Amino acid sequence: MSGENELILGIESSCDETAAAVLSGGRKVLSMAVHTQIPVHRLYGGVVPEIASRSHTERIGAVVDEALKSAGVGLNDIGAIAVTCTPGLIGALLVGVSYAKGLAYAANIPLVGVNHIAGHIAANYLTYPDLEPPFVCLVASGGHSHIVRVVDYNRFELIGRTRDDAAGEAFDKAARALGLLYPGGPEIEKLAKCGNPNAFRFHAPFNEGESNDFSFSGIKTAVVNLLHNAEQKGEVLNKADVAASFQRAVADTLTMKSVRAALREKSSVLALAGGVSANSVLRTRLQTECDRNGIRFCRPDMRFCTDNAAMIACQGYYMLRSGEVSGLDLNPSAAEFLSEGR
Question: In tens digits, what is the pLDDT along the chain, a chain of 342 residues?
């Protein structure tokens, strides 16, 4: 079991951010260092796995050194290393896991393999010092859309998930159809500020049912079809209206499903996590509906919304406390999602 003030080094390399952070006691952030690859991948309209892996290899040493230096500590001061081991791009994960294993071996300190989705959930602990399980959490990002029952710090139960595209993935695809840059979420949100969210009705019949699961493929396809049909007819659409209407459809779906799930679970808290949690319309809609239903709404500070190593260190701290330590034979997995009891 770790001490209350033990220093944890977190390493995150699951996709297109090379990140490191140092935490004290699981919730006090001493430093965060991030190298983003977005400018490179933007040229291709999305993440290129091979380019991502090579960039991680080139940058990870400098990023970790920056995090340690900013925290004013050395590797010998670190009590454990937490690293994202699943899910994500396998090549990118291999870089982070391999580097973390080398550091753990060299310093003879514990290694903890962390699930990336659990890390996103833990980002809320960094913003709310008093937050403790159990609660319900909506995880919405480029690759994941889940409603999770957080039973304990290291125990999760999946109670809802996307049947097709993740919310962030739908944002990226709709943005591409609108001629916007990658990543699509921030670009659509920016354009939508000038649009009418009631101009078009985008919906998927599946989302009107009672299931906790989502479907975003139909909403995204409706946008693509609208744009293609208008182009074929020589009509000019207000793209800001399209962006605003699409954003509203996604935010409404996520809000309705997650708040209803929290009520069904009789949870007094609904938390939000993942890259899409930075969307201001979604945050406002969830806050409004939670207030209306007497539910406490928690969402991470903006710096903890996208991929970062502080959330990985935080989750690693609680795993270390319960004795969940990995060996040097730790292997990454590209698609190991949260499951019953874990």
Answer: 446 779 999 999 999 999 999 999 999 999 999 999 989 999 898 999 999 999 999 999 999 999 999 999 999 999 999 999 999 999 999 999 999 999 999 999 999 999 999 999 999 999 999 999 999 999 999 888 999 999 999 999 999 999 999 999 999 999 999 999 999 999 999 999 999 999 999 988 888 889 999 999 999 999 999 999 999 999 999 999 999 999 999 999 999 999 999 999 999 999 999 999 999 999 999 999 999 999 999 999 999 999 999 999 999 999 999 999 999 999 999 977 765 433
- Report the C-alpha gap between 25 and 227 in whole angstroms: 51
Q: What is the pTM of this model?
A: 0.94
Quick one: 76 exposed, middle or buried, by C-beta within 10 A (0-12, 13-18, 19+)?
Answer: exposed
Distance CA 168, CA 185 (A): 7
HEC secondary structure over 207-229 = HHCCCCCECCHHHHHHHHHHHHH
Q: Is 131 helix (H, G, I), strand (E, B) or coil?
A: coil
Cα separation, 33 vs 20, in Å, equals 5
Neighbours of 155 (CB within 10 A): 16
